[in-house]
Structure formats: structure tokens, C-alpha cells
Task: structure prediction
Amino acid sequence: MSENHSNGPMRWDEHARGGAGGWVRASADPQGPPGEPAPGADPGQGPAPDPGPGPAPDPGRRTFPKKHVLLAVGGGLAFAAVVLVTAHAVRPSPPEAGHSAAPSVSGSPAPAVEGSTASGAAGPSGPSTATAEEQATAVDALLERSESDRQQVIDAVNAVEACASESSVADAGTALDAAAVRREELITGLAELDLGELPSGPPAARSLRTGWQHSADADRAFADWAHDARGCSPGSVPRTASYRQGVRSSELATEAKQDFLSLWTPISDRYGLPERDTAQL
Result:
């Protein structure tokens, strides 16, 4: 359809026809009085200038207002932001602590954790450096301590039996309680020794540990007997249940120590260590 140019010069207005663009008269707007801007134009800028003799825009090409372009650009930016957020949300999380890491690109295995075996179980701290003779000497040192404790126990039991005074009986009970504690310290020290290099070392240690435990039980039973004997007079100390329990535990201790000596004597002979008997243990 042709445009009418008989009533004055025409210009192309991109805001005409609802933003679609169209030809309008340069001197007057058919939709309003002379001097008023065309609908949609900025009222503070006055009439649009004449585009001059340059090439006219293609009336068949649709142009869009700047605000529409800005909206399109803003929408594109918003869509890009949504894509970035979605990609971050679905990105695989790093491996949690305790999970094995992926193998390296070079194919070399990951370094093993210190102190662990190939199966993942904790390995030993290292081979024992003590020789069989050193292990035997360590056991003999504990036997020496046990012998000194034994004499203190004998003296304390005799003090209760004599009942020379109330204070001597009380002191004997205190000494017997202390002896029981030292016996248990011997048991702890024995458990810390490595006897793997000694022939019959582990079974000998079990028998000795049993004997010392019965001795500790006897010491505490005799300490209770000293408490029962308070107020006694010489030659008239009662034989209470605590006394009988002490005697029984002493017998069990002697049996276990005999088992120990049957295994220990060949070891002490081999390494030139002192000979022991049940009375010394």
C-alpha cells in the first residue's frame, strides 16, 4: 500500500503504530494538535527532527523500542544466571573424608596410610628388638622385687599373730594392704613384657601372673584379719573367716608358682640367672 505525501513532508517514526513504526507528517500529527509529540514520544524533547534526505528505513522491517531491547537483554542475563546456579547444584560433591580417593592419572597407587597393612588393618609398630636373654633378665628383675615384698608380708602376719599392741596390729594391717598393691603392680609390669623369644615364655608368664594374683588376694584377706583382731590380747587372736581366706589364697598362690618354676628353671639355667623357689616368689 502506498503512502500519501501530498500534505507535507513525511518522516519515519519508530514509535508510531503502537511501536511497530510508520510514516507520519513532519509538520503535524494527525492524532493531536500541531506542536504536540506523537503518541509514545518523549514530551521533553519536542518534535522529532527530520531525518533528511538519507535512505528511509524499510517500512516492512519491524523495529522495537529501546525498553523492549533492555527487557530482552535483562531476560537473557537472568536465564544465564539460572543455568549457572543449576550447574553448580548438580555438580558432584568432593569425596567425603574416609572414602578412598580416585586413582591418579599416571596410574601410580595412592600412598598407604602409615602403620596400616594392605588389608587396611593397623599393623604392628615394629618387630621386637629384645633378645631372649634380655627378656629373661626382665622377668628376673620382677622376681627380685617379689621376694622383697614376701618378707614384708611374713613380718606383718607375725605381728598380728603376736598382738603385742593395738598399734602394732593396726600397722600390720596397713602393711598388708600396701603389699597387695605392690603385687598388682608386679602383674602390670609382667603384662608389659614381650616374652615371645623365650621358649615357654608365654605359658610361664600366665602361671606367674596367677600366682601373684592369689598372693594379692591373700594379702588383703590377712589385712582384714588384722582389722578383726583389734582389741586382742597376746596369745588370744581369733581365727576369723578373713584369716581362713588368707590361708586358702596363699595355698592357691603356691600351686601356681610351682607351675611357673617348672617352666622357668630351664630358662634361668640357660641364661645364668638365680634359681628361685616358691618361698621366694
Observations:
- Residues 132-270 form one domain.
- The first strand starts at residue 10 and ends at 13.
- The chain has five helices and two strands.
- The CA atoms of residues 77 and 151 lie 95 Å apart.
